[in-house]
């Protein structure tokens, strides 16, 4: 009887180890078969193509509602799940998914032309006429640019892109040029509570 207990005590830790390995390997195999969706790949696991830029607007050609789509190629030997739920192993040449990038609404007003008009003919109101503000353009023309002060102020406002076209569109700026992004606070903006000292 004592020999039976000694033998079972020796086998019991080995049995525990065997069961642990069996469960651990099965769990790893189940987790390894879980394939991520292609749209959820991490940076470095895919490369997106550059968008095709329209020469006239300097924005992506397929820009609609402030967004454009670009094709993304997963890296070689990356396996991910396509939208039709099939698993695919990529070689680095196939398109895996499309990603949206922001773009801007432009209507034909050039930033370079607006700054040049403001600098050289701002005292005549040509910049305001160009941007679609005829009343201010006429007022600047009649007062010779508010005696030069209004021309200087308008030049700074236009060059900092604070004053834009009257229709609410953006300036045409070179795609890789000096664009400004306005930061604003809305109801969705997170505000930290102020701690009183």
Describe the structure.
- The chain is α+β, with helices and mostly antiparallel strands and 197 residues long.
- The chain contains six helices and seven strands, in the order αββββββαααααβ.
- The strands form three sheets. The chain has a three-stranded antiparallel beta sheet, with no helix packed on it. It has a two-stranded antiparallel sheet with strand order 3-4.
- Strand 3 and strand 4 form a beta hairpin.
- The longest helix is centred in the N-terminal third of the chain and has 32 residues.
- About 3% of the residues have low confidence.
Rg over CA atoms: 32 Å
Strand content: 15-25%
Instruction: State the low-pLDDT regions, or none.
Output: 27-32
Shape: elongated
- Number of contiguous helices: 6
Structural class: alpha+beta
Order of strands in the sheet with most strands: 1-2-5
Summed over residues and divided by their number, the pLDDT gives a mean of 83
Number of strands: 7
Between the first and last Cα atoms, what is the distance in angstroms? 77 Å
Major beta sheet summary: 3 strands, antiparallel
The helix-strand sequence is HEEEEEEHHHHHE
**Helical content class:** 25-40%
